[in-house]
Specification:
The protein is mainly α. The protein has two helices and no strands.
């Protein structure tokens, strides 16, 4: 009979051990799941920030191209003539200037 009692005790201990192992595994799975959800949210935030920064870079590259084009334009004779006429009021000899009455 001692062996039957010992067998029942071991069986109970095995079940208790399996139960505790199951509880520990469930706690670990829950903790990992919670952390992975947080990491997925951060990944999404970083992807949104990256997309915003990429669009800003593209806008700045476009602006840089516009500035380069304007710089080339400012070195042309046409630009110099426009500035001389608009800012300084200079004209070619024999050229007639029409002004609005509002000015």
């Amino acid at each position: 009979m001692a062996t039957k009692a010992r067998y029942k005790r071991r069986r109970f201990q095995n079940r208790a051990g399996i139960l505790w192992a199951t509880v520990v595994v469930m706690i670990l799975v829950t903790a990992v799941s919670i952390k992975s959800i947080g990491l997925l949210q951060k990944t999404k935030e970083y992807q949104e920030k990256e997309a915003a920064l990429v669009s800003q870079i593209e806008a700045e590259e476009q602006r840089s191209l516009e500035i380069e084009e304007f710089e080339k334009y400012t070195e042309t004779r046409k630009y110099i003539e426009e500035i001389a006429k608009d800012k300084l009021g200079l004209v070619y000899p024999g050229e007639i200037i029409f002004k609005n009455e509002d000015n």
